[in-house]
Amino acid sequence: MYNLDNKIAIVTGASRGLGEGIALELARRGATVVCADVNSADETAATLHSLGSPKSESAQVDVSNAASVDSLVSATVETHGRLDIMVNNAGIYTYGEIAEVSDEDFRRTMDVNVGGVFHGARAAARVMKQQKSGRIINTASQLGKLARPNEGVYSASKAAVILLTQALGLELAPYNITVNAICPGCMYTEMMEKSFSEMAESEGITLEEKLQDYLDASIPSGRFGTAEDMGRMVAWLASDEASFTTGSALNLTGGEQVFF
Ligand SMILES: NC(=O)c1ccc[n+]([C@@H]2O[C@H](COP(=O)([O-])OP(=O)(O)OC[C@H]3O[C@@H](n4cnc5c(N)ncnc54)[C@H](O)[C@@H]3O)[C@@H](O)[C@H]2O)c1
């Protein structure tokens, strides 16, 4: 069990889904977690208290806004004294043919998915360089490594997350800071359920049929990923045991994709 006692972490997108799973796992291993989200993450923070993490808290942030992210990071350092783990996980999904995507949807996807990771990683890097230690973990996607119809804008945003991760990993390695991305496949969350509902509707089948078809055709492990799977991979990357892993984009797909 990776020990994260006394570590201070920020997790963005922590009000639900993968972010909530990450926050729970880090707290179970001893970290104090600032659960940050554009929506209220009070319930996540309350769960962390019940798990024995009394200093964990919720915070409001819009990751697409640099000032909002800078305030989150400086408030965390002011309250908790340092920042050991920054998990840039908040993201949004955009579905639709590139020919039909609106300017607004394109910009919003880039602002949240790429801007959000950039703002979080930059603010954390400034603190961690001074500390000469830290872990930055970014949520990308398997779609950052492959193209599929209707998912081009989302894919492009996640490909950018992977390259930002790799470059920052090189820049921060001399400071004892690792920077890694996780590329989840299909993880069962509200975001995933919504996107599958849209696909099912466009194909004229039910959500249940769409889910089963996808499992049968695409995931050798025979199940969708979970927030717990995600939390465990983040916990490892955040631990001392992962100190030689940096600039990586690790797959978390149950075999759906096995690319490098
Ligand atoms: N679920 C999947 O199958 C899957 C697969 C690959 C990658 N991902 C990525 O994992 C991450 C989490 O996805 P999820 O499935 O848990 O999604 P989700 O929609 O369930 O949760 C996303 C969270 O991010 C928050 N958020 C959205 N915009 C924000 C903003 N501007 N500022 C702060 N918080 C904001 C939301 O309020 C929400 O709590 C995303 O980056 C997503 O792209 C998910």
Structure description:
With 260 residues, the chain is an alpha/beta fold. The protein has one domain (8-187, 226-252): Rossmann fold (3-Layer(aba) Sandwich). Helix content is 48%, strand content 14%. The chain has 8 helices and 7 strands; from the N terminus they run βαβαβαβαβαβαααβ. It has helices at residues 17-28, 42-50, 66-80, 103-131, 152-172, 190-203, 207-218, 227-238; strands spanning 8-12, 32-37, 57-60, 85-88, 134-139, 177-184, 249-252. A 7-stranded parallel beta sheet has the order 3-2-1-4-5-6-7, sandwiched between helices. Strand 1, helix 1 and strand 2 (32-37) form a beta-alpha-beta unit. Helix 3 packs parallel to helix 4 (103-131), helix 4 runs parallel beside helix 5 and helix 6 (190-203) crosses helix 7. The chain binds nicotinamide-adenine-dinucleotide (NAD). Residues 12-13, 15-19, 37-39, 61-64, 89-93, 112, 139, 141, 184, 186-187, 189-192 line the site of nicotinamide-adenine-dinucleotide (NAD). Nicotinamide-adenine-dinucleotide (NAD) is lined by residues 12-13, 15-19, 37-39, 61-64, 89-93, 112, 139, 141, 184, 186-187, 189-192.
Name its key features.
alpha/beta
SSE diagram, text form:
Blueprint: E1 8-12, H1 17-28, E2 32-37, H2 42-50, E3 57-60, H3 66-80, E4 85-88, H4 103-131, E5 134-139, H5 152-172, E6 177-184, H6 190-203, H7 207-218, H8 227-238, E7 249-252
Parallel strand pairs: 1-2, 1-4, 2-3, 4-5, 5-6, 6-7
Helix pairs in contact: 1-8, 3-4, 4-5, 6-7
Bound molecules: nicotinamide-adenine-dinucleotide (NAD).
